[in-house]
Amino acid sequence: CELSNITIVLEKEECGACVSVNATWCSGYCYTKDANLMYPQKSEKQGVCTYTEVIYETVKIPGCAENVNPFYTYPVAVDCHCGRCDSETTDCTVRALGPTYCSLSQD
């Protein structure tokens, strides 16, 4: 479980454009075990590779009207660990659209 470079696409519908940015995020493997065979009544907590700390960076999205805030702030991981996925701040599913999805025109 470690920091890795990733390209993500930021989208602001009011501006009609998407922008690709480089960032760091956490990826990799965490130790897991399945005790169901030996102890079916005991459930194990499985760790996932997630961030310990993030900072926020801001980019200006082009093509925004004058009455629209053109700035978009996004998280960038600065440290990773194996732990519980916090569904309050993270999409813990595997059904996300992916970091390069854009429903608008891309710059």
Polypeptide structure, described:
- Its main location: secreted.
- It is found in: Secreted.
- One of its GO terms (molecular function) is follicle-stimulating hormone activity.
- Disulfide bonds join 1-49, 15-64, 18-102, 26-80, 30-82, 85-92.
- It comes from Aquarana catesbeiana.
- This protein is mostly beta strands.
- The protein has a single domain (1-31, 43-102), classed as Ribbon (Cystine Knot Cytokines, subunit B), CATH 2.10.90.10.
- Helix content is 0%, strand content 47%.
- It is built from no helices and five strands.
- Strands 1-2-5 form a three-stranded mixed β-sheet, with no helix packed on it.
- Strand 1 and strand 2 (17-27) form a beta hairpin.
- The two termini are 32 Å apart.
- The mean pLDDT is 81.
